[in-house]
Amino acid sequence: MAKEKETMLDLLIDGKTYQYPKGTLISEIAADHQHRYENDIVLVTASSYLRELHHRVHRNGELRFITTADQIGHETYKRSCAMLFLTAVSEIAGARAACSTILHFSVGDGLFFTLADGLEADEVFLQKIEERMHALAEARLPIVKQSVSIMKAREIFRDRGLADKEQLFRTRLSSSVNLYSINDYADYFYGFMANHTGILKYFRLVPYMGGALLQMPPRKSPKVLGPVMDEPKLFAAEMEGEEQAAAMGIATIGALNRTIIDQNTREMILTCEALQESHISGIADSIVQRDGVKFVMIAGPSSSGKTTFSQRLCTQLRARGLKPHYVGVDNYFKNRADTPKLSNGQYDFESLAAVDVEGFNRDMLALLDGEEVKMPTFDFTEGVRIYRGDTIKLGREDLLVIEGIHCLNDRLSTSLPENSKFKIYISALTQVNVDEHNRIPTTDGRLLRRMIRDNRTRGHSASRTLAMWPSVRDGEEENIFPYQGTADVIFNSALPYELAVLKQYAQPLLFQVDQDDPGFFEAKRLLKFLDYIIGLPAEDVPANSIIREFIGGGCYRL
């Protein structure tokens, strides 16, 4: 009997059609085309689906390769490196040690871990782990993906002492879960993974703040390891947030879900809010205790809750006998005709060049000299600065609470004496993680906040917010993050319970993103993430909560 003719598929790759046998591994196709890409291919889009490279092709269509220079590819690389690290810990110190090693949060381009009890994160031990990681990478070992039932996965996690993972899957409605393994080490990871260890070439391990920092390249330079970001104040704020969440018993999604199931949510919400108010009160005390402060400068990335925080800080300052006046730097925008533009022709509102720095300094110096100053308001509809008769004159108890993305950049307030400024950096530093080895990126919480607020206040779709988010992030990298270390204090505006509330508002918006939309994969990723969380009604969220800035129903004029 004659052998059946092999079925060939037509695959469109980079604008050209190639033929491959049906059932060919995508990894083999990627290897054929890798020479045209500067950075390693880690994922592929095929037939409107995002795929790992261990899949096979079964139909005609277009393949688009994702590299480590793409956001999703970069996150895949970091996640896979984390598994490589845990595998090396398991092989050198034992499986129990790997299970008890905790991934906390990102530090710059790295991931911060604390090791299991009994292990010292010193240079000798970490060098041994790093050498093993490089050996595993050079061996180009497959990262094997296996689907097991939820019940089987929970049993595996329970036997290995992974309590957070076991609890996470108690509320999963799906019937199976994907586990990944390198050699004998198997674990669950939230998100896509590389298909073999050979891709994981660029990393280093360094002792950091009592733990281990797994340093990796930034997305924009996927083959270059940069310096370790040393931001002790930011690190302390992140650790404090995690410790407070742990003390409340809601350090992971599984624990948060259990609290919601047990209907202890009102107490949880009020406790979270009380802790945050206590921090704001402490900042107010610091301002009062410092002589000569007339300008409280507040900056932070998008959707950090800067406006609500500023209003709540004003309330605390009034309670201490001061007379704060809120000033938004946005009111000092240059008229639209004078606003700089990006290379694509759009206005660059994120740049300091979009602000009338000279006019801002002139007014602030006049106020410092005791003069009465007419304060501007920017009309965003007309794109011009106007004056409505609002004036400020600073007396002994008066001070300005100034909010804007450039407030920590001394070029904004170049004429003001340094001792007259108190600088605050605010960001939503997520305190809750998925489980022991899976973190929640801080940017995800801010993206959900912004998506909800933009839809509620501006009528923007989730698709529009997703489309502009990369440029927002680029602006933050250039204009905000470099100055966070200059802050006198750092305020964490995230609330451990907030993702459960935001889910109720974000899910319907994300479901509206069409399959052919450029933001579809990101929307799908966020939907999958939110599916792990039990939703929480907003009825018990206080009117002065920072969350109200995004979901509405707050008591402040924003």
Helices, by number, come to 16
CATH topology of the largest domain: Rossmann fold
Low-confidence stretches: none
Distance between the termini: 78 Å
Structural class assignment: alpha/beta
Major sheet: arrangement of strands = 2-1-5-3-4
**Major β-sheet, in short?**
5 strands, mixed
Quaternary class: single chain
- CATH superfamily descriptor of the largest domain: P-loop containing nucleotide triphosphate hydrolases
Question: Which descriptors would you attach to this protein?
Answer:
Threonyl-tRNA Synthetase, Chain A, domain 2, 16 helices, Rossmann fold, alpha/beta, 3 domains, 558 residues, 5-stranded mixed beta sheet, 5-stranded parallel beta sheet, Ubiquitin-like (UB roll)
Could you give a quick summary of the protein structure above?
The protein folds into three domains: 8-67, Beta-grasp domain (Ubiquitin-like (UB roll)); 73-230, 2-Layer Sandwich (Threonyl-tRNA Synthetase, Chain A, domain 2), CATH 3.30.980; 234-551, Rossmann fold, CATH 3.40.50.
Topology of this structure?
Layout: E1 8-13, E2 16-21, H1 26-33, E3 41-46, E4 49-52, E5 61-67, H2 71-93, H3 95-99, E6 102-107, E7 110-114, H4 123-138, E8 144-149, H5 150-159, H6 163-168, E9 176-182, E10 185-187, E11 204-208, E12 211-215, H7 232-247, H8 253-261, H9 265-289, E13 295-299, H10 306-318, E14 323-328, H11 357-368, E15 373-379, E16 384-392, E17 398-403, E18 421-427, H12 442-458, H13 462-479, E19 489-492, H14 498-511, H15 520-530, H16 548-551
Parallel strand pairs: 1-5, 13-17, 13-18, 14-17, 18-19
Antiparallel strand pairs: 1-2, 3-4, 3-5, 6-7, 7-12, 8-9, 9-10, 11-12, 15-16
Helix pairs in contact: 2-4, 9-10, 12-13, 12-14, 14-15
